[in-house]
Amino acid sequence: MKRYLRLTLFFCGLFLLSFGFAAYTNQLGPPLPYYREETQAGVPIKPAVVEEGTIVDIQESYSFCRQSGFSCADRRPLTGAPRQALNGKGSEEISLLYSSAEGWQVQWEDGGAELLIWRTKEGFCPEHTGYWHFEEGDRGNIEVYQGPAGSGKLGELTLSTTIKVNSLPEAYQEKVRNGSWQFQNRDDLQNVIDSLDS
Ligand SMILES: [Zn+2]
């Protein structure tokens, strides 16, 4: 008998809950995020618009720089004229300036007090493209990869030499193995390779 009582109470509770939820959605519509562009079912919703005090950050990062943890991939505050140009604008107007066709994403944070505009491109950023560095290859040889020190083997393998890393002085071995030996100039790179090869 006691068991049936519990079961009955359980279903009564379930019924009340679903009734409550149905009444809620009937009156107010489905639960929605705080910010919307329109109003719905008589609930005024504040549209997200950039105001003078809105913090706007921009993050235009390149995948390899981001994976390497380079500071060029960090988000930073948007300043000056580009920041001023956003005042009074909502998501749709912002998307005209930073279009999704160009990979931009617009994201409100902190209940609309902050806006992040971001996109990620492939490869290294323009600043970090013009670098090469040594890595140790599978055969214990020196390999040259595109990208600065710290980017590992993310960049393109530019050259695979026959120079054995363990034939080098210890300090050089260390520099190759931890990927910290970098070059910004192809001639410098070639000169070092020639001198190590002799
Ligand atoms: Zn970079």
Characterization of the model:
- It is elongated, with a radius of gyration of 29 Å.
- 16% of the residues are buried.
- It is 35% helix and 22% strand.
- The model has no long low-confidence stretch (mean pLDDT 88).
- It is an alpha+beta fold.
- Among the domains are: 55-121, Ubiquitin-like (UB roll); 130-197, no CATH class.
- It has helices at residues 2-28, 63-68, 80-84, 91-97, 126-129, 170-177, 186-197; strands at 55-62, 76-77, 105-109, 114-121, 132-136, 141-146, 157-164, 182-183.
- The strands form two sheets. Strands 2-1-4-3 form a four-stranded mixed sheet. Strands 7-6-5-8 form a four-stranded antiparallel sheet.
- It is built from seven helices and eight strands; from the N terminus they run αβαβααββαβββαβα.
- The termini are far apart.
- The protein binds zinc ion (ZN).
- Residues 62, 65, 70, 72, 124-125, 127-128 line the site of zinc ion (ZN).
